[in-house]
Task: structure prediction
Amino acid sequence: MKLSKKAEYGMRAMVAMGRAAAGTTFSIQDLAANENIPLKFLEQILLVLKNAGLLRSKRGVGGGYQMQRPANDVPLREIVEAIDGPFDPIGCVQGSRPGKSCECGIAGGCGLGRTMSELRDMVQTWLTETTVAHIIAREAPPQMMSFDI
Amino acid sequence: MKLSKKAEYGMRAMVAMGRAAAGTTFSIQDLAANENIPLKFLEQILLVLKNAGLLRSKRGVGGGYQMQRPANDVPLREIVEAIDGPFDPIGCVQGSRPGKSCECGIAGGCGLGRTMSELRDMVQTWLTETTVAHIIAREAPPQMMSFDI
DNA sequence: TTCATTGTTGATTGATTCTATCGGGATTGG
DNA sequence: CCAATCCCGATAGAATCAATCAACAATGAA
Result:
């Protein structure tokens, strides 16, 4: 069970933007080059993130993308869900198909559906609480050469 | 991000077997019919679960599959990993590619990889601690008609 | 105005994976 | 022997994924 490449690229792009000062503008080209993401692929991704309200854009010379919110206010869940849709281990968890019963046909939901909804909730909570800033904070700190022998 | 249908069917089959007394034998046909799983598809799945050490089988008349261990000793992780492989949000988490560095090329791993390995560990822990018996315990209890007006 | 720069959009392709299905083969008990 | 049952490999159709292509629209500078 993996995230799509799109979602990964989307997170990498957001992290790259989140590292810079608020208001910094990035062209798709620069992001693609720096993060090793196929240019035309990244185009689609940033557009989705823009439509999801995570980015704003400006066209023309000197244009590009900016973050709408600071990195510590961008949950990974918003990025991942905008691109890949919600995390949902099986198509049978409670509340995942409004108005429809579990596809197993058991009224009130089956044990598997109930159990998997626990996993879903746990993952979604983590994705909500973990932000772009969290990722940046976990990047390798600059080497402290003086502590090496 | 979803589990495969195979993994879901595998869990449903294991749950069905786990409900019965230890040592009960099930034919593929019965399981397929009761759980609404395509017969030839279930064949493949049960074979994988057998090779993973979760089931034992007996051929010929009166044969079928049995669980190797009681339901409370079968973590969902064993079922899911045998069929779908390990949960791994991106192909860049620490330790997921032995001997290889993160595909992002950053020595020591990138922040995204470190962060996603936290999610991976959380999910794998849950899958390890949650068993087939857990699912069965969450199935709808028999209706208590006497308490309805 | 003109033009290069940059984002926007839809279509398309090629590869891969998913979800099965098919056809037989091997083993066992009666 | 034979019927039931598991075992195994190949195949096929559909869906999804990853990426590319081609053309368009807006912006700001010269």
Summary: Chain B touches chain A at residues 1-3, 8, 11-12, 15, 36, 76, 80, 84, 87-92, 104-112, 114-115, 118-119, 122-123, 126-127, 130, 134-140 (CB under 8 Å). The two ends of chain B are 43 Å apart (CA to CA). The mean pLDDT of chain B is 89.
